[in-house]
Amino acid sequence: MSMVSDICPVCGMGTMSEVPTVEYHKMFFHFCSEQCLKTFLDHPGLYSSKVGRKRSKILKRRTMTLAEPLDDEIRELITSSLLQMMGVEEVIAEERRVGVTYDLLQITEEQIEKTLAEVGARLGGSWLERLRRSWVHDSEEIELDNLAAPPAPRRNRPPPGV
Ligand SMILES: [Zn+2]
Fold first, then answer.
1. Could you tell me if 50 and 63 lie in one domain?
2. pTM
3. What is the average pLDDT across 120-145?
4. C-alpha pair distances (Å), 43 with each of 1, 47, 148
5. What separation in Å is there between the alpha carbon of 110 and the centre of ligand 1?
6. Distance 16 CA to ligand 1 centre (A)
7. What CATH number does residue 98 fall under?
8. Are 107 and 143 within one domain?
9. Domain count within the chain
10. Each residue of 57-86: pLDDT tens digit?
11. Which residues contact 37 (CB under 8 A, 6 or more apart)?
């Protein structure tokens, strides 16, 4: 007999039977959405141990620069599409900027950028903005990897003066 939870391990919401079930370390996990399924598969160790425990958040507030100013129609589309994603708490879309507050444990900037691309908002192509985005992708990945991994053994202190 195995424990079956009807709580999504990523966001804590109810699950949907349409989303595939995942077996991990002899436990079965069910999800509320394809987005949470994908988030779980990226770092299963981070979520499988959290089932039933008090949930924490890692809130990020980031601003993405767009290639061209937004008109009202696409601004509304961007706002509603992003707010439908799991883990997005606030969206401020104006001119050439989209500011998003989100929980890194549920969504990454890379996933947010994908949704922006799907609704037709082109991201800014300046080298500085591309550099910022790639830095964010790397640092979010590292942050999640570190959380998912067991604590590393302590390293010796560097010698004084290093
Ligand atoms: Zn979920």
1. no
2. 0.84
3. 95
4. 25, 7, 6
5. 17
6. 9
7. 3.30.70.100
8. yes
9. 2
10. 999 999 999 999 999 999 999 999 999 999
11. 19, 20, 22, 31
